[in-house]
Amino acid sequence: MSKAARVTLLVVIILSVVAWALYPKFDVLFGSSDNAQAGGPPRAFGGGTTPVTATVITPTKLENKISITGSILPNEALEVKSEIAGIITGIHFEEGQDIKKGEPLISLNDDELQAQLEKLKYSKKLNEETEFRQKKLLEKGAISKEEYDISLTQLNTSEADIKLVEAQLQKTIINAPFDGVVGLREVSQGAYVNSSTVIANYYSLDPVKIEFSIPGKYVGEVKAGDKINFSVDAFLEPFQGTVYAIEPQIDPETRTLKIRAFSPNKERKLLPGQFARIELIMETIPDAMLVPTQAVVPELNGHKVYVARAGKVESKKVQIGIRTAENVQIIEGINLQDTVITSGILQMRPGASVSITSVN
Questions:
Q1: DSSP secondary structure letter of residue 40
Q2: How confident is residue 35, by pLDDT bands cut at 50, 70 and 90?
Q3: Phi, psi angles (nearest 5°) of residue 165
């Protein structure tokens, strides 16, 4: 390299070093064009006021709830079957019909039982006459007590046989066990049925039950009487229910607790088997202090928020409670009507000056 080239290179290096040393001073005096283009606040001598957004703490209703899924169950449900075997002689319902408790559903052939009942009634009449005569003879001492007891036993046996046949006759008519609606029938008139034949399904649908499970860690927070909100795919409207029973055991396989709730169903919009999306409200706090999630700063030993007071920033150590999708409950550390800063949290420092641009 020639001497002139070396001199030129040395001059370029010196000028570069001088320019690098003087650049920050020009940036402070005239402002950074890059910072202005980025939309950040211009730098000023001695600092400045930072614009922020904030929220004023007011009492707010807070529901401690969890979201789970469940299923709709009938209040009562059974398969209509006959206790005895026989031929169907009468079907007394229409499919899908509302039935009142005690109304007949199915009749079976009872000719044979009716004949047995008639025969037993004749036998009973004869035994009554025999017992009456024997009693008179016993009073006169014409017969022994043993002979009278035999005739009395025969009479009592006749009466017991009649009651047995009458009970069997009652089983030839299947009555509705409760108010409900009958489903689609599986048999026709004249069909032979026995105790395993399903005639139809029978349901009580008002109210319905909602069955669901929650994680076992909530076992101490749910109780009978708690409210639920739920929805089903068939309708946009929400439905409400009330917890009435809790399984007294946590499932050892899933570590969940099974719960059932009642929900009114006068319009029959809810049907057994539907999938339900459920919100279980375990606790309602009418006057909770809530702040947006982004306003809470986690620390090693807890949490804090920044409060604006008289244009200055104050750091407040807080104790948090329930978290929701958007807010955090503050249990301790701030007061109602405090103004909590919700933007620019990472740039906040105690004692800094701020100007509030908007308040939620």
A1: P
A2: very low
A3: -65, -35
Instruction: Match 């004749």 to its residue by tokens.
Output: 122
Do residues 197 and 84 lie in contact, with contact meaning Cβ atoms separated by under 8 Å?
A: no
* Cα atoms found within 13 Å of the Cα of residue 235, Cβ hemisphere only: 13
> Partners of 292 in the beta sheet?
327
Looking at residue 7, its pLDDT comes to: 62
308 exposed, middle or buried (CB, 10 Å; 0-12, 13-18, 19+)? buried
d(Cα 342, Cα 360) in Å, to the nearest integer?
9
Per the CB < 8 A criterion, the answer to whether 77 and 204 are in contact is: yes
User: What pLDDT was estimated at residue 346?
Assistant: 86
CATH of domain 50-61+287-359: 2.40.420.20
For residue 83, what is the DSSP state? S
Note the pLDDT of residue 18: 58
The amino acid at residue 191 is A
The two structure tokens encoding residue 69: 């899924």
Sheet holding 173-175, edge to edge: 173-175, 104-108, 86-91, 192-193
Q: For 263-291, what is each residue's pLDDT tens digit?
A: 999 989 999 999 999 998 877 888 889 99
CATH 2.40.30.170 assigned to domain 66-76+203-285? The reply is: yes
Class of residue 301 by CB neighbours under 10 A (exposed 0-12, middle 13-18, buried 19+) = exposed
